[in-house]
Design a protein that fits this description.
The complex is a heterodimer of chains A (100) and B (130). Chain A has 100 residues and is of the alpha/beta class. Chain A has a single domain, classed as Transcription Regulator spoIIAA. In chain A, 41% of the residues lie in helices and 36% in strands. Chain A has a five-stranded mixed beta sheet with strand order 1-2-3-4-5. In chain A, helix 1 packs parallel to helix 2. The mean pLDDT of chain A is 95. By secondary structure, chain B is α+β, with helices and mostly antiparallel strands. Chain B has one domain: 2-Layer Sandwich (Heat Shock Protein 90). Chain B is 32% helix and 28% strand. The model of chain B has no long low-confidence stretch (mean pLDDT 94). The chains are: A alpha/beta (100), B alpha+beta (130). Chains A and B meet through helix 2 and helix 3 of A and helix 3 and helix 4 of B.
Chain lengths: 100, 130
């Protein structure tokens, strides 16, 4: 999994590339921790090239969503692949994280 | 394919790839391979986290048109199916972090079975292949 984080004005664009699984979830957590320290988060995750996520990845997205919600911020995931979307759907995550 | 991995620490990616490269799994379509990879990872992660076993035996066979993937380990008795399902309707502030792995397998596989026999945890998942 490769991740890049770019600021565009007040918005943070996070681009995910590859597979998010048990082998790299800890690194992913380190990468997104700074986003949880943002006082007024407005985050867009570009999932075009996210090929896969296991429950380890879902944990990270949930942690991030909890942090964003507690601050009244925004998190949206865009261009999610159908197979990944199915994981979000069957776990109810598509009801708690905005997906466009 | 039946293969024993001993020790197992730090080898989760290798075990998943062994399953994915079996002739039974390699010929499946992309969507099914995605589901198999995910469920194998979730079961394996569960074993690594909770059983304390130093070894694991993984089997992949076709039984007619049913793909059967088995996991056997010598750790402490642990039935992952006994755990209550997460509340997937809960609002974000009440959602628990964790407990999703086996729930995902329940949704994606046709059946899951657990038994404890002769000091071993035996977990089997089945998926019909059309």
């Amino acid at each position: 999994m490769e991740i890049s984080i770019n600021k565009q004005g007040d918005k943070t664009i996070v681009t995910l590339n590859g597979r998010l699984d048990t082998t790299n979830a800890a690194q992913f957590q380190n990468d997104i921790t700074p986003l949880m320290e943002d006082a007024n988060p407005d985050i867009e995750m570009d999932c075009t090239n996210m090929e896969y996520t296991s429950s380890q990845g879902l944990r990270m997205f949930l942690m991030l969503q909890k942090s964003v919600s507690s601050k009244g911020g925004k998190l949206v995931m865009v261009n999610m692949r159908p197979a990944v979307r199915e994981v979000f759907d069957i776990t109810g995550f598509s009801k708690i994280i905005k997906i466009e | 394919m039946i293969k024993r991995f001993d020790p197992i620490e730090g080898r989760n990616a290798e075990i998943i790839e062994e399953v994915m490269q079996t002739q039974e799994v390699a010929k499946l379509d992309e969507d099914l391979q995605f589901k198999i990879r995910l469920c194998v990872e979730e079961v394996e992660e569960n074993i690594l986290c909770y059983s304390g076993s130093t070894w694991i035996e993984v089997s992949v066979i076709m039984d007619g048109n049913v793909l059967v993937i088995g996991f056997k380990d010598g750790g402490i008795e642990f039935d992952p199916l006994a755990k209550e399902d997460p509340d997937i309707e809960a609002p974000v502030e009440k959602r628990q972090i964790g407990g999703l792995g086996i729930f995902i397998c329940k949704q994606m596989m046709d059946s899951l079975e657990y038994k404890y026999e002769k000091g071993c945890n035996i977990f089997t998942m089945r998926k019909e292949i059309n």
